[in-house]
Design brief:
Blueprint (H helix, E strand, L loop, with lengths): L1 H16 L1 H11 L14 E3 L1 E5 L4 H14 L2 E8 L16 H11 L5 E12 L4 E10 L16 H9 L4 H7 L6 H13 L2 H7 L3 H17 L8 E5 L5 H14 L3 E4 L7 E6 L2 H11 L2 H11 L2 H10 L3 E3 L3 H12 L6 H11 L3 E3 H10 L11 H10 L1 H4 L3 E4 L4 E3 L9 H20 L11 H8 L5 E3 L7 E3 L13 E5 L7 H9 L5 E6 L2 E5 L3 H12 L4 E5 L2 H4 L1 H24 L1
Parallel strand pairs: 2-5, 3-9, 5-11, 9-10
Antiparallel strand pairs: 1-12, 3-4, 4-5, 6-8, 7-8, 13-14, 15-17, 15-18, 16-17
Helix pairs in contact: 1-2, 3-13, 7-12, 10-12, 13-14, 17-19, 19-20
Amino acid sequence: FVISSSISTVCLLCLVISPRVFLVSVLWNCGFLSSSFEFSSRKQITCNMVDVTDSNFEDIFPTFEHQLKKCSFVALDCEFTSLPFDVDIVPSFQDSGSERYKKISQTIIQCFPLQVGVSHFTYDRNLVEYKATIFKFNVCPKFFGLFDLNINLKSSSVQFLKTYNFDFNKVFYHGIPYLNQTQSEIVLDQMKKGILSERIFNIMTFDEREALAGHYETIRKWLHGIDVGLTLTIQVGTNCPHIKYFLHKEIRKCFKNVWTFHSTISSPELSVKRVSEEERLSLQVTSEFKIDEELLLSLRGFARVLDALISCKKPIVGHNMLIDLLSCYHHFYLPLPDDYRKFKTNLNSLFPVLYDTKFISHEMKRMEFRDVVDNISLQNLYMTFQDKKDLAFKPTICLETGGMYDKDGVHHAHDAGWDAFMTGFCFIKMMHFLKAAGNKSIEHYSNAELMNVAAPFKNKINIGRAFVPYLQLDGPDPLSSRPPHLVVSYINRSRLNLNHLDSLLVEVGTFEVKQLSPYAATVAAPNYHSYHDVIKKFSKTNDFRVEKYSILKHHKWARSFFIVGCILPASVTVWYYLKT
């Protein structure tokens, strides 16, 4: 009765203040309006998903930087035009970390990011919950005379992304441009030499040159009899930063009694002001190179997001993130180095703390939590930790107000923004589950406690179907956990029929077979279970011989070197003995 009376009093007070406020208060108390933070009990959740394009990037970037500095960690995800393993690259059970890196780095230049999702997760100590914000950046390299890149868009990738309603028009029409540091230095060098305007003029279309001639004529006529201080506004007719840059430079060069201004480098308007000789000299000192800086920032585009991530040194979480890391490094930072160890050193200096939820989920399966993380695809992990509230219903993760995503998120799969959120969500839930040791704990854990749980997984990046179990970014890669290779041959030493061998192995599992000689082949098994199954299968036949691979016995050059290494010293010894 006391509660209902209080609510009635509040509603009547609201009616006195404002009928509109009264209506809102009634709807709130009746349950029609509710807090956007009631994540667990609503089918629809509201979230702050910011869709970023070239038209709003400059407005949103300061907010992104501000929230980045406050957040506890960042989750990252990318969508690509294709994947390296789509381009004549076959991963192998026998790949070391260095070999896999070499395979990917040779083809990553053809795999352009189309979307980059960045989700900030901020821990609130007072509310004991995480708040998440999603930024979805649509990115696309733009033609800029000096740089005209071939974008390799495979039909299979198009079909795959179409299945998930990917908006190609938004990417190609409104994608944020970018230059890596090497490309930026080329532009900066041409600015310093004063030849960038000439390069821009050479790539202009006929219509663009005609429009420029019209602007010059308009300014020339306007200047007759105009007093100092008056301003002319020109509609440039394009938002291309390099056209605007060229106009600024050429107008200042052609007309010695004016100066040019604009609100932003990409705005379609440009102001021409009649100035005195003294004012122009002053502006040349204070503002001459401002337009250079603005153009370079505009061309750098999304690379500035990576610069911000590098500067803040926040922990970054990804799911199966090796391709994401290599692509971001190459396209937004520097071309990938040839040396694998140099790449790891450089990457670790840029991002000292990285976590891969795919690797963590593999480790949880080994820790006998298979019932929790049986299927380790990102979508399945998300559904598992969202639904199993008896296992990991804490901590609360709230999406801040500002947009709408369906709670289950299924139809948002392979949307880079939503995938980034799911990655961070799963990371928090897995760390809480491990901290609670699988018990139905009702205890709250701070962000620092969860990060302590994550420490054993730091900088370990999943590498599927390889000789090493993972890549260790801040040290040497671990020893292989794969079983030794087997050598299979016919007992009668006849030529080996690989098709026959493959047909037998398919009955057991997935293996990699390589021709060792006309009479033998190596068989690489993915795990010890399959390894023992192969030995058991061939031990029951009278046709095949199976043995462990030995470099000394089976490598043709090693055997030759061994023989030479034995014979040569012996021959020298005998010769020396006989001579003396």
